[in-house]
User: What shape does this take?
Amino acid sequence: MILNVSGLAPSELEYRLRQTGIVLQTGSFITHLQTSIPGVAECISLLYADYPLLEQTDFADFHVSLAQPGNLRRWFRPQVLFLFDGSPPFKPLPLDQAFPMLEWGLNWCVSSQANRYLIIHAAVIEKGRYAAILPAPPGSGKSTLCAALVNRGWRLLSDELALIRVSDGKLIPLPRPVSLKNQSIDIIQNYEPGAVFSRKVNDTMKGTVAHMKAPADSITRATETAQAGWVIFPKYQAGASALLETLPRSRAFMRIADNAFNYSLLGVRGFEAMAGVIDASLCYDFTYSNLDDAIETFAALKPPISPM
Amino acid sequence: MMDSNMKWRLMTDQALQFRCWDDEFVVYNSLSGDTHLLDSTAAQILLKLQQAPSDATSLSESLAPLLHAEMDDELVIQIEQILSDLDTLVLIERT
Assistant: This one.
């Protein structure tokens, strides 16, 4: 029988994290995580409650840990290091940012290592078998829109990384906590009072950040792939009415390629995979300011014509 | 000014992949790893050169019906300009 994180008492989770680490399954990825940093266990208990825990002997894609650097700063300005296979890929951050750093580090693990997928910086949500890919640069309101949509019936595949399986073009779920920053945190907390959030962490490189727990149904269906249906470039614009404008597929291709982590690395296989997604999708620019209007627009999306 | 009888070919060892949507082409160059957004005329020139090396005059003659254009000096100049652009993108070279 598979045990979920919620099956461990908080003290047991903290003990395991400190001693042997835990083996956590998030979608297709298995992560061995070890840490004794105070507060991280609490966040994992809150946001990863519904995720399966595997045996210590199971294979892990990533071996990560959070640790405090062993220098003098430990005493007067404590820091945290994210370690991947025992080495830090990033500079340390203030200790208070340990959980956001874990989340950013886990994203980095996938985006830098999982080259069996074409990886795009995009949120992915699904409804009625079809996925909407929302590629966008920071500040476009991608994660806010994604958080609102998954609280209104769309399934979360990812708020950050679209994983396109090169072999068949399917979208692979990676439902993890949704990262929100600054005003978006309050907006979503007001929009969906039932959503579960980690505490706010101030003064990070992204400003104030908090993570929203992924919907339970999205986690349960974390092995269920989806077919690309829409590629939508969202843009939040204060005061704008919701406006969905058709985007030529050729233009969408070039813009989505700009948002890919490993398109060049995959060579012609990356081109073919990207072309497959564009072939299968209706492409749009989407400007919005009001979340209810955005939800309505997404609810009215027509499914693409299925290939014969 | 370009000699309209100068022959052009695709870069040696280069394989191009084409996708066409909405009268525009996305072309992947396996040699450089670059992806280009091209209009229909530029893409048709590459497709012609993929078959055999050619010059601006011959390309103009064969592409005029596809472009619904008259075969005249103006078209040849237009094709020469596109050949120059494709040369800059390192997609073609002189034979």
Remarks:
- Residues 9-94 of chain B form one domain.
- The mean pLDDT of chain B is 94.
- The CA atoms of residues 13 and 72 of chain B lie 33 Å apart.
